[in-house]
Task: structure prediction
Amino acid sequence: MLIAGNWKMFKGPRETEEFVRAFSPPDGVEAVIAPPFTSLREAVAGGTTVFAQNVHWADEGPYTGEVSAAFLKELGVAGAIVGHSERRQYFGETDETTAKRADQAFAWGLRVIACVGETEAQREADETEDVLRRQVAALPPHPDLVVAYEPVWAIGTGKTATPELAQEAHAFIKTLIDAPVLYGGSVKPENAAELLSQPDVDGALVGGASLDPESFTAICRAALHS
Ligand code: PEP
Result:
């Protein structure tokens, strides 16, 4: 099982050092942390597997504010998250740019967690399967691709998909692509075991609850028994 922590825009280098000192995931679960770019070096030094929260599609060039796969490799970063709903919502990320970023990550030997998921309005309009079909179809199949199903209405809202709803979406995604599928959306120590015990839930992408080493360790422990 893969349990990944997306720290979003939280924790600078000093707080990252504190986190990695306190974090002790159990053996038998792959724990990944994805800090902001400026904290990657400290995260890598802590010994946990580290992903970036994004990666650009060019090797280098005039792309202000972006970071290349080559730079991430140089730091010892293992992979990148692409297509997070916050990137899609606030920074104009599309299925096409998500795919370009994933392609470039693979070209540099990085692993990828690619995020997909429907909004509340799309779910209410019965468009969930159409949205997932479109978003997944854009992803480049690759042995190092992991998909994260993150219903947008459950991200950072405290609303969690029921285990049955998550299982249904994961099973559907697996009819579209051969890749492990993580669940993301308000995963916490209290609900992790039930979500992770669903047959097609292969791990979790955790936002808020990954910021505290104790709660993130507890989620990793829940994965051990699921
Ligand atoms: C996320 O941002 O990937 C996420 C799932 O956030 P949260 O766990 O805080 O809902």
